[in-house]
Design brief:
The chain has two helices and eight strands; from the N terminus they run βββββαβββα. It is mostly beta strands. It has one domain: Nucleoside Triphosphate Pyrophosphohydrolase (Alpha-Beta Complex), CATH 3.90.79.10. Strands 3, 4, 5, 6, 7 and 8 form a six-stranded mixed β-sheet that branches. Strands 1-2 form a two-stranded antiparallel sheet.
Length: 171
């Protein structure tokens, strides 16, 4: 099966082989994305991008396209570090979504839960704002990009996984 996918090599490449840095996958048939629902106790991290993917505005789960040959687990780790400054979290793949996107490419979305060990964050270059929200006090769906998709993912996968700040023993 032939596709129209190709790799743009890092400008530091030599003889067609990347020397440093990832290469970017250029493809008009497929879109591979990792979404990361970062959780800390009963809170979830949301971001607003300076320029939103697909020209969307509003809250997003941290996300990005996978780099060429990048494993989705590595992408999720990279996304947390680059976009939120989080480098200490336990990841769990929650779901793989498959659909045809607005740009008519076949999307594979790797939805991760990330259990962060801290709420300390620092916004990456592409991030205009990032904020922890208590899961039961998240913004309404209309404040999310893509018609509330990130909120739907959080409710579907994270609601039962978030841990209360304190636990009480039965009396």
């Amino acid at each position: 099966m032939q596709t129209n996918c190709r790799t743009s090599l890092d400008p530091t490449s030599l003889l067609g082989r990347p020397v440093l840095g990832p290469s970017i996958m250029e493809c008009n048939k497929h879109t591979l994305v990792a979404h990361v629902a970062a959780l800390h106790h009963s809170s979830a991290l949301l971001v607003k991008y300076r320029v939103g993917p697909d020209n969307q505005q509003g809250w997003f789960l941290p996300n990005d396209d996978l780099h060429h040959l990048e494993h989705p687990d590595q992408a999720a780790t990279r996304i947390l570090k680059e976009q939120a400054g989080i480098d200490d979290a336990t990841l769990k793949l929650a779901e793989i979504e498959s659909f045809v996107g607005n740009n008519q490419t076949w999307h594979l979305i790797f939805d991760y839960l990330a259990f962060a060990r801290t709420v300390n964050t620092s916004p990456g270059k592409a991030v205009a704002e990032l904020r922890w929200f208590e899961i039961d006090k998240m913004p309404p769906a209309e404040d999310f990009a893509h018609h509330g998709w990130g909120r739907t993912v959080l409710v579907k996968h994270a609601l039962g996984k978030a841990q209360p700040l304190s636990t009480s023993s039965p009396g």
